[in-house]
Amino acid sequence: MTRLGFALVTALGVASTATAGTPDLERLVAALLGTSPLEEDLRVLTDEIGGRPTGSEANRRSVEWALARFREADVPARAEAFTMPALWLGRSTRAAVRGDVGFEVRAAAMPFTPPTPPGGVAASLVDGGRGTEADFARLGGQARGALVLIETEELRDVEGLFREYAAGKAIEDRARGAGAAGVAYMASRPRDVLYRHNASQGPANTLTLLVLEREGAERAARLLRAGRRLELVAEVDAETGGPYESENVIGEIRGSERPDEVVLLGAHLDSWDLGTGALDDGCNVAMLIDVARQIRRLGLVPRRTLRFALWNGEEQGMHGSWGYTRTHADELDRHVMAAAFDIGSGRISGFFTNGRAELVDAVDRALAPVRGLGPFASVNEPIVGTDNYDFMLEGVANLVANQESANYGPNYHAASDTFDKVDLRQLRQNAAVAAALAWGFSEGEAGWGRHTRAEVESLVVGTSLEEQMKAMGAGLWEQWASGRRGRRPDAR
């Protein structure tokens, strides 16, 4: 069966399960499951523009591309500026093991690793095991001035990714406390695949932080455990700088009855640059553009205003969405909901409702017309790490699409995150789910309001939110605790 044939059959199946009184949504779902420019949009964004770190020329081109795609779909769109705290763009990283045994090893610098002088820097390479407190205690003074090699588990799914992030923050804190020159992580992806994660301290980082290709790092670990003396020579070439301006792209379909009330759907336009940012998060950028396109093509007019936000600065600490909450501070009381789509192209299985129990029934009602694409289940726990974050801290009702892991984890931030990894059929079905969510929140009644600072504080201390903020690093906890980020302390 052709892809179009499958899509039409699926559309009919979904439409047959729709609740009564939603003819507009039935038409929209059928359109999203059929033929559209979605696939070609994603191909151009990933294959032709490529990886899009915030501050790069590719990122600037992606902003112009996104504006053009919205406008060609007759969706009014604008670029909105915000400030990034610091620039870091990796150019190249070279590494070699020297000492009793010598060999070249492929490496990638973690963002905000300081550039080295030409020719690089050399330091003893020491076996840090898994980087636990006991491992650093075993190393004792050997860690001072050394690069600590950290063994990792192979990453297989999103849960493993969360564990990797939490471990990285603690490891880097221990390395800093031990006076190490830096950390050399064994890549958690096999077959020579490299990736980038932020340094846990973000722009304040002073350590040399590297990801070494797994097979070479395993060889080095075996040599160290056999008693061989090794050093690592690393050369990092990166463009760095202070604060600069970047832009989000905002598309908008104005509401007919309550135009001042906003339902916002977002995905992030930026990516790291070893791959082409297809799963993270180009596929969801293309998906949201297509949802907006089909609404306009069909002549549908929502009751509330629908905004489609393509964020920048997400990978470096969700700075674009943070900037939006400051630019639109006077409107936040009228934001009915803000949703983030950021876990690749795996099937949407429901939504994180982020400690807002009152949203569970609203999500269920919104998704009822597309229950044939389910089952769906809400998870009423807060989640940190994507662009719902600042809406949550500002007390705005917020959602994150919960998706099946599929192949997201192994390709996350990696050279392997390319167009061919995207499940295009599933992405179209996810578009139908996103449209149902947007339409349901636009048309239905909203029996909730914006949380006060005290209510947000209660969420922070009463859930795992504080722990997650600290584990993510990048100053998230400190920014909240100091009142620089989130609803102001006097907003009671």
Q: For the record, what is the CATH homologous superfamily label of the largest domain?
A: Zn peptidases
Q: What share of residues are in beta strands?
A: 15-25%
Number of helix segments? 16
Cα Rg? 23 Å
Q: Structural class, from helix and strand content?
A: alpha/beta
CATH fold-level topology of the largest domain: Aminopeptidase
CATH architecture label of the largest domain = 3-Layer(aba) Sandwich
CATH class membership of the largest domain: Alpha Beta
Low-pLDDT stretches are 1-21
- Globally, the shape reads globular
- Gap between N and C termini: 58 Å
Mean pLDDT: 94
For the sheet with most strands, the description reads:
8 strands, mixed
Number of strands: 15
How are the strands of the biggest sheet laid out side by side?
A: 3-2-9-5-6-7-8-4
User: What is the domain total for the residues?
Assistant: 2
Tell me the layout of helices and strands:
Elements: H1 3-16, H2 23-33, H3 38-49, H4 57-72, E1 77-84, E2 87-99, E3 103-105, E4 107-109, E5 121-127, H5 133-139, E6 147-150, H6 158-177, E7 182-186, E8 208-212, H7 214-225, E9 230-241, E10 244-253, E11 258-268, H8 278-297, E12 304-311, H9 319-327, E13 335-340, E14 348-352, H10 358-367, H11 389-393, E15 398-403, H12 408-411, H13 424-443, H14 453-462, H15 465-472, H16 476-481
Parallel strand pairs: 5-6, 6-7, 7-8, 11-12, 11-13, 13-15
Antiparallel strand pairs: 1-10, 2-3, 2-9, 4-8, 5-9, 10-12, 14-15
Structure description:
With 492 residues, this protein is of the alpha/beta class. The chain folds into 2 domains: 322 residues, Zn peptidases (Aminopeptidase); 154 residues, 3-Layer(bba) Sandwich (Glucose Oxidase, domain 1), CATH 3.50.30. Helices cover 37% and strands 22% of the residues. The chain is built from 16 helices and 15 strands. Strands 3-2-9-5-6-7-8-4 form an 8-stranded mixed beta sheet, with helices on both faces. Helix 8 crosses helix 13. The chain is globular, with a radius of gyration of 23 Å. The termini are far apart. 54% of the residues are buried. The N terminus is likely disordered.
